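Letters spell out the chain; backbone shape is given numerically. Both lines appear below:
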Amino acid sequence: MFKFLKSLFRIDLISRLKPALAISRASDASINFDWYSEGKDPQFLVKGRMPSAGWYMVEIALKYNQSSIDSKIYFDYGAGLSESDSIFIPIKSGKVTKRLVYLSARPQAVRFDPMESVGLFSVKRFNLVRLLPQFAYDRLAQRLNNMHFKFRNLGKANVLRSIREEALERNCCWRDLALEHYGRTFIKRRQSRDYNEWIRTVELKRLESADKGLSLNTNTDPLISIVVPTYNTDLKLLCACVDSVLAQSYGNWQLCIADDASSKPQVKACLKEYQAKDARIQVEFRKSNGHISAASNSALNLVKGEYIALLDHDDTLAPHALQRVAEEIRKKPQAQLLYSDEDKIDQLGERFDPHFKPDWNPDLLLSQNYICHLTVLRASLVAGVGGFRLGVEGSQDHDLLLRCSPYLNVDNVVHIPEILYHWRAINGSTAQEGDAKSYAAKAGLKAVTDYFESEGLQAMGEPGTAPNSYRVHWTIPQPAPLVSLLIPTRDGLEILKPCVEAILSRTDYPNYEVLILDNQSRCEATLRFLKEISTSNTRVSVHRWDHPFNYSAINNFGAELARGEIIGLVNNDIEPINRGWLTEMVSQAQRPEIGCVGAKLYYSNDTIQHGGVILGIGGVAGHSHKYFNRNEYGYFSRLHLVQNLSAVTAACLLIRKAVFVEVGGLDSANLAVAFNDVDLCLKVREAGYRNLWTPYAELYHHESVSRGADNTLAKRRRAQREAQYMRNRWGELLDTDPAYNPNLTLVHEDFSLA
């Protein structure tokens, strides 16, 4: 009887799948896959009687040989198959993915696209489960409350009420609106929100609601001097550059142009014409060519303003760029550096590739000139460091910022999270090809190396693993400080043994101890291993913690026992990959300004598990670049760059013991299982330290294998309590991560547009 009732609600579609395009049976039985996708658009048709109208839960499980895939289902209601009547489903190999769908009528045809690439796969589950409307509404509200930024503070009970009110205001069907919001939580990385759509729906609305112009008061508003070096510039691009300054809604500016002895007479003629056109434009015509640093210094000699803005001769400013800078200076008159987000502009004038940057991030600046454009510096600061330096042409702006950085901090640096600068992408420019100018990369490395020498820092730079990036090796004092690696465990020999053995065999750092914190293990094999490893290896000791599981309390207990100057929080499902992992993390953790240090963690299939923690994703925090492929650069190469982040995961985290004690360790009272690492990192940051993530410590992390998933009512309630505690404790900080950007999504972990 039960199977009969179940069959009334569950429609099994696997047996009804018929290859329609670019799909064939896998010919080799030994490969353990059923199907072969022959192209980028493989398609099944679903044969047989179609489901009736109503709410359904789609259940899909696929096995595949790709790093990740996305599936799509199309429903034809009589007008043919179209994108508007389709749903996207991100697939995790071997796991069941579920998504709500509402069928407005009985479809005439259904198409299933299992993936978007050539590869092997098997369909393990493909069901449609009929749902009662009230249950569907509950699932809809739950996901929106958990994953959609707009609804997460409302509580599940208020989500649908809010959508109905919004639908009344927009005069549309509330169900369609709800499904639109719901669909946003499934947007995939490869087809994330289109930038042109973002410009239309976000940027233009923001500009429409902003002040049309800043009222000019020459007694209080700063004069902003724009520095532009030129040399044989394409006249069309040069005019576009200067015209973008003339079009500024803020009028208290000075344009300081230094022409570096251009051999094209029309360039000089053009500049003279502009100089005669507007008294705010001054031009220095250099007698001999000295390259960009010398030309920029000539432009600096013309400066009369309190602030200096850097503009390349073929780039353009947004019309409101200087207005926004002046507004921020009004709010923060102590500002020494202001910078904005930027995008690129092609030869046809089309905007693309927006770079939405983090706030002040000193370690990221050592790895890459992430500030780039628009850069605005206080003139006295530029004069104080000697202007542009000869010998670093190609990275002169990065060099200038590094030399200014000792005088910069979170209180006097302003990041304007808006696109105020359009970087021209033409053949041979670094805007178009990150490695187009090899001399720029060499100059950048020289800038970083010279900075260390001038500041007396014990560090050395080398080329990074991404174009135009740098890796910094910080010198570890001798003797090397003792590191105490704390590994909580309960049974789980199959993960603990590989973890401990991998640490002992794949760690070149000379001075460390391993403290295994045994939380009531009962398995005889595990107990036998603990005894053997602690007696056979002098680095390893075992300590019994005979209390109910509390991750925070266990590690606080271990920290009290630790003899090391540095503590390492390490999960029992971690396996080091590169032998230098601990050396790299110690080199960062021993720096006096650094608090918590995190590592680059992979799932067993070599996709990213942790590239740092981003606050606000999913309500509290999420993992940066989750599920990206191991070798991908990530958002503007950030998967390959040392950088400051608000938080990192305690699956592998180093911190000086003194700092751990200073902030009170982990919160065992309120955060027994989840978010205790995020809370620790935020306390450390609150105490004045910078947290840091490094891609040069690489480890596998078999996430939550030992503890298990939050799949019981009690576990879910505990997780909700801990999430609510974090919201209450840290409030708006969780929604304004300074290491992220408000224009990027808080729904996904892929740096896609919000």
In short: The chain is about 30% helix and 25% strand. Confidence is low (pLDDT under 50) at residues 1-6, 432-436, 704-709.
